[in-house]
User: Fold this.
Amino acid sequence: MTETEQKKMEALREYMHAVKDQPHSESNLIGVLHKVQQIYGYLPREVMDEAAEILEIPTAHIWGVATFYHYFNLEPIGKHVVSVCMGTACYVKGAQGVLDALKKELGVDIGGTTADKLFTLQEARCLGACGIAPVIMVDDKIYGELDTKKTIDIINRYRKADAAETEA
Ligand code: FES
Assistant:
């Protein structure tokens, strides 16, 4: 755990102790899950166990809430999340080819994370940019009018930027 993560975890522990006896425990629990995901990008099992202990809620209940809301990641995700739009407009403009190219290039299926932890591949339904279909979103940036080559070029740009960051 990094020093920053440690500090954030300490703050989170304090928060959990503070909200533990408050009413509306369900919304407090969701607040805790959000904070955990902000720190780690997903919900690590050992942190969930600690939350269960502090909040005095059965672990199974916490996992039940976490799996009900699709927003929460139960597994570690990559540094960049690549979402491929499979909505109708994108689909008719070749989204399947873009998705297949990404699966092949990254060596993962939908929901998978690359071995170097750089990318997680996801599927999306309409990213609100149908006019430039087919579309992918990397983190919060939209890329449109794609073909397989342009898509792989985008991935390579992220790889290069990451390599440059690591060297710096
Ligand atoms: S269907 Fe892909 S952006 Fe709308």
